[in-house]
Every structure is written in structure tokens, then in C-alpha cells.
Amino acid sequence: MHRIGKLGLQVFAAPDNMTGQAQIQVKAREIDFVTSFGKNIQALLDVLGIIRMIKKDNNTVLKTKKVTGNLHSGEVAEGEEIPYSQYAVEEIPFDTIKISKYRKGVTLEAIAEKGYDAAVQDTDEEFKTDLQNVVMDKLYAQLKAGSLTGHESTWQMAVAMAIGKVKDKFKKMRRTATGVAVWVNTLDVYKYVGAADISLQTAFGFEYMKKFLGADVVFVSSEIPENVVIATPLNNIIGYYIDPGDSEFVKAGLSYTTDPTTHFIGFHAQGTYERAISDLYAIMGLRLFCEYLDAIAYISVGGADTQTLGKLTVTAAEGSETGKTKISVKEQLMSMKNCWKYKDAASATTVKYGDDVKNWSKWDGESEIASTAAHHITLVECDQNYKAVRSGDVTVAVKS
Fold it and tell me: What top-level branch of life does the organism fall under (predicted)?
């Protein structure tokens, strides 16, 4: 029988590398960090309609795309060769996605003075917010580089035209916009709504509203300059990430806790005893990226008005009833919020970009119109504020 008294207290010492309460608490802190970070960005991805993020290797070059080409006329005479409609997609290197490394430390003295919650947990939240800002800042930088530029006299018109321009661009690229996201300055929004009460939601640090001024989602931010409106189709935005839980990192002894669902960020917490510091490490390679740079509209309010009235191709034929004409327009509306307006007169009506056509007659795009032989019908596409965007004119053919 052993005499424990002679063996001393060493008999009761914990085994080496045992998982104890301290390790469990640290692991819980890591899991909480990566899970909440993943939920935050997933909320934004849901708003943007991004179903899944695309995994990339470290140091992958991200390229924007530009589509060039035109659709050849389909009016080919009998027996003639049908011409090819040629399109080319040009890829332009824009940036590189790579793992970035971050570190935060909290001293033993800070914990003793302020308590664990204030010194560690609260600073963890601030650290997480700063990491979110890294992702957002890179997206803002690309949005501000949009090549669909223009000027409008009013802020509301700038919003309408930004939406119209990106939808029109996608249409010309033979793509359909699943929706449009708009970015505006915080002060511009409140100047517009005045005393009206608006409700903003938050996702991954973005404040946003849904279904506002014709946009599917409007992001409100002080990062956007005043008197500037930026827009792009929702399906122009892609999410990329590098998996921080890569097995190659683990082999090197660098094991980070990741969210098993998202894998967007790696997190590790440990105590550095030689300095009495609680160290926090994070690694991340995460990007929200616009695939087509020329499908980002950057519209300024004020300054030189470079916008010109778009053209509509309008034709006319005799109607099915006496005194009526049937007009047709080749183009489609640039926005679901836009509508057709027309004026019937003895001569063509002069229209300038932004003219108010609220009092003109409304056309549904199909119905025949009562008119007089040799009269002109001037057709206008107007935005939701009844401001002219495009116009065309035709001499009517009336059934006698």
C-alpha cells in the first residue's frame, strides 16, 4: 500500500496539456468572435442577394471585366449571309486578394483596473468592427472608381439616373439586373426626407433601407461624398474569401478557430506570460467585389450638366379603328419605375433632358392612339418624377 503522505502534493497535480476551464473559456471566446463576425457578414450577403462566397487561393489576382461589341441587325434579305454579332470580354487586373494579419493585446493591468468585460470583451467588439471596416473600405474604393459617370441638377434625379444607367448597361451586356443597390451620403438622405421618419437597418456595419426611391436597397454612409450617388446591379457584386483554416497553416503550427459555416475569418487568443498580455490574433482574406467596373454609376449633383436626352426609335402604322394610329417603340423602359408619355401635335414637340412631362398623355406601350393624319406623336420615356430621359418622334398613319 502506498504512503501518500511521503509522496507529497505532486500526486494530485493535473496532467500536462489537460483541457481545463481556462482553455474552455478561451475557446468559447474564439468561437463567439468568428461566429458573430460570420453572422454579421451573412446578413449583408442576404441583403445583396449573394447566395455563396467564392473561395480563392492566397494572392489571387482579381480582375474586372468589360464587355465590348454590338448586336448586328436581324433584317437580312432572303439568301444573304447572316452576320455575326461579335462580343468580347476584356479582363483588367484590379487588385489582389490575400491573407492579412491582425493583432490586439490587452495588458494584465488594464484587466485588473477595468475588469474583464471592459478590457477584453468590449475591445474585442471594437476589433471586430475595425476588421469589418477593412472589407467595407475596399468595396467603397472600387465603387468610387465606377466609369458610368454623369451630372444631374437634383439629388433625386441623380438617384433615378444612377439606377437607369446600370440597368441599361446590363441590358446592353445581355444580362438582367436582379436588382439595384444604391449608395448615398447620410446627410443627403436626411436633407431629402426632411422631418420624415425613416427606419434604417444595419448589416455588417452598413446602414440601409429597402425599396427607397426606386432602388432595391439603398446604403446610407458618410463614406460616400455629399451630392454623389453610386449604383450597381446587385448581381454585379461577388464575394470572395480565403479559408483561414487552411490545412497548410495548421501544419505550420498556426491553428485558428474558424466558423465551420462561413470560414471567413480565423481567430486565436492566448496569454503571453512573459509580458502579461492577453493577445488576440486574426487573419482574413475577404472581399466584396464588383465584377464589371463599367456597370457602376457615379452620378454627381450640380456642376456641369453632361447629360443629354436619349433617343427612342418610334414607328407608326394605321390603327384597327378609324381615326387611330398604332405606334411602336424599339427600346424598352430603362427602369420599372419609368413610364411612357406622349404628345399629339401638328408638328414635333421639342424635348430637353429633364423636362417635366407630367401633364402629357400616358401610354401603356400597346394601346392604339386617336390622332389626325399628318400629325406628329412625340414619345418620351420619363422617370418616376416625370422628367424626360429619352424621346422620339413619328408622323402618324391614321386609318381613314
Answer: Bacteria
Query: Of the segments 33-47, 94-108, 192-206, 358-372, which one has the largest average pLDDT value?
Result: 358-372
Q: Is 136 exposed, middle or buried (0-12, 13-18, 19+ CB in 10 A)?
A: middle
Flag the least confident range among 50-59, 68-77, 115-124: 68-77
Q: For residue 345, count CB atoms less than 10 angstroms from its CB and return exposed for 0-12, middle for 13-18, buried for 19 or more.
A: middle
Q: pLDDT, tens digit, for every residue of 107-121?
A: 888 888 888 777 777
Within 10 angstroms of residue 65's Cβ, the number of other Cβ atoms is: 17
Q: Are residues 341 and 262 in the same domain?
A: no
**For residue 19, what pLDDT band results from cuts at 50, 70 and 90?**
very low
Last residue of a domain, one of 301, 325, 358: 301
Contacts of 395 (CB under 8 A, 6+ apart): 316, 374, 375, 376
Q: What is residue 62's three-state secondary structure?
A: strand
- How many separate domains does the chain show? 2
Closest CA relative to residue 193, chosen from 214, 212, 207: 212
**Running DSSP on this structure, what letter comes out for residue 12?**
G
Q: Residue type at 168?
A: D
Contact predicate 285/232, CB 8 Å: no
74 inside domain: no
Q: Which pTM does this prediction carry? A: 0.61
Range of the domain at 170: 22-68+88-301
Instruction: Work out the average pLDDT over 212-230.
Output: 91
> What is the number of residues in the chain?
400
